[in-house]
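Please fill in the sequence for the structure shown.

STRUCTURE ENCODING:
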C-alpha cells in the first residue's frame, strides 16, 4: 500500500508509478483525513510507502497529522519507506517523518528523494520547459531504481538529496512553514469566473466558491499550491502576489477535461 498527499500531481505520479510495479493500492491522505479514517489494512508483511512533497524542508501538515494518527491493522513485518518529491532536496523531512512515525509506534525503514519540477511558483520563478522535461525524464529512471530498492527492502537513507539544507535552520523553517499555512494570505481576484475548479481540486476542502468569489473557509491548509498553480484564470493571490507561472504534473489530469481530484467523481483503478 502507498499513502499519498499531492498538490499538483508529482507525488501522485510517483505513487502511481511505484504502484504499477509493486502492486497494492494507493490511499489518498487528504481524503482519509476528511473521513477521519486512520486504519490501514495491510496484508501480512506488505510494505507501506508514504509519498509526499517536501515543503520548507519538512513534511506537509496533512502528512504529519495523518501519520501521527494512523493505525496499521496487521502487525506483520511492514517495510515502511518514504518517497519525498521535491524541487531540489528534502531538508529535514526524513527526520521529521521518522519522529512522527516513532511517536505513533512505527519505524521508518528507508527514505528516497525524487527531484521533480518545482511548484512553489509564488516564491520562485517557474523552471523553463527544458529543465522541467529533464527533471521528469530523470525521475522516470530514478523511480525505476527506487522500485528495485523497495523490492530489495533496502534500509536507511537511499538516494537522498538534502538540497541546500542547513540543519541549524530547520526549526526556523518549520516556523516559517506554519506561518505560511495561514489561509488569510489567500484571496481571489476580479478575474475569478466562479468555475469552482479550486473548490473541487483543493485536497483539504478549504475553498468554497460563492458566485465569482473563492473563499478560504478553514484557518489553515498544508499550502500545496494546487489552487494557485491550477486556477484556469490565475485569479488567486497569496500574500498579495500571483503565481509567476503555472505547474501541474500531467498525470494529474486523468480525464481529458478534468482532474483526478481527491473529492472528484472518479478514481483511477486501484485507488481507494
Ligand atoms: C509551499 C511549498 C514549499 C516547498 N518547499 C520546498 C523545499 O523546501 N524544497 C524543495 O526541494 N522543494 C520544495 N517545494 C517544491 C515541491 O516539493 C515539489 O514541487 C513537489 O514535487 C510538489 O509535489 P506535488 O506535485 O505532489 O504537490 C515546495 C513546494 C511548495 C508548494
Ligand atoms: S479556480 Fe479560479 S476562476 Fe475558478 S472559481 Fe477558483 S478562483 Fe475562481
Ligand atoms: S487552499 Fe489551495 S494551497 Fe491550500 S490545500 Fe487547498 S488547494 Fe492547496
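FILLED IN BY: designer on duty
SEQUENCE:
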Amino acid at each position: 500500500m502507498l499513502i499519498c498527499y499531492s498538490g499538483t500531481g508529482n507525488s501522485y505520479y510517483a505513487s502511481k508509478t511505484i504502484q504499477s510495479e509493486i502492486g497494492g493500492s494507493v490511499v489518498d491522505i487528504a481524503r482519509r483525513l476528511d473521513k477521519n479514517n486512520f486504519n490501514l489494512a495491510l496484508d501480512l508483511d506488505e510494505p507501506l510507502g508514504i509519498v509526499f512533497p517536501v515543503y520548507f524542508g519538512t513534511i506537509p501538515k496533512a502528512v504529519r497529522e495523518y501519520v501521527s494518527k494512523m493505525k496499521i491493522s496487521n502487525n506483520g513485518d511492514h517495510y515502511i519507506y518514504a518517497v519525498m518529491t521535491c524541487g531540489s532536496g528534502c531538508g529535514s523531512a526524513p527526520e521529521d517523518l521518522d519522529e512522527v512515525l516513532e511517536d505513533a509506534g512505527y519505524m521508518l525503514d528507508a527514505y528516497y528523494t525524487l527531484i521533480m519540477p518545482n511548484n512553489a511558483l509564488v516564491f520562485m520563478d517557474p523552471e523553463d520547459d527544458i529543465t522541467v522535461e529533464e527533471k521528469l525524464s530523470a525521475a522516470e529512471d530514478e523511480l525505476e531504481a527506487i522500485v528495485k530498492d523497495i523490492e530489495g527492502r533496502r534500509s536507511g537513507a537511499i538516494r537522498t538529496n538534502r538540497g541546500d539544507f542547513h540543519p541549524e535552520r530547520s526549526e526556523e523553517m518549520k516556523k516559517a512553514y506554519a506561518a505560511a499555512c495561514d489561509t488569510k494570505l489567500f484571496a481571489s481576484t476580479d478575474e475569478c469566473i466562479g468555475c469552482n475548479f479550486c473548490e473541487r481540486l483543493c485536497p483539504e476542502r478549504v475553498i468554497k466558491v460563492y458566485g465569482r468569489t473563492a473563499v478560504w473557509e478553514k484557518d489553515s491548509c498544508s499550502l500545496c499550491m494546487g489552487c494557485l498553480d491550477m486556477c484556469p484564470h490565475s485569479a488567486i493571490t497569496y500574500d498579495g502576489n500571483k503565481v509567476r507561472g503555472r505547474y501541474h504534473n500531467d498525470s494529474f489530469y486523468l480525464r481529458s477535461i478534468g482532474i483526478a481530484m481527491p473529492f472528484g467523481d472518479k478514481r483511477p483503478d486501484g485507488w481507494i
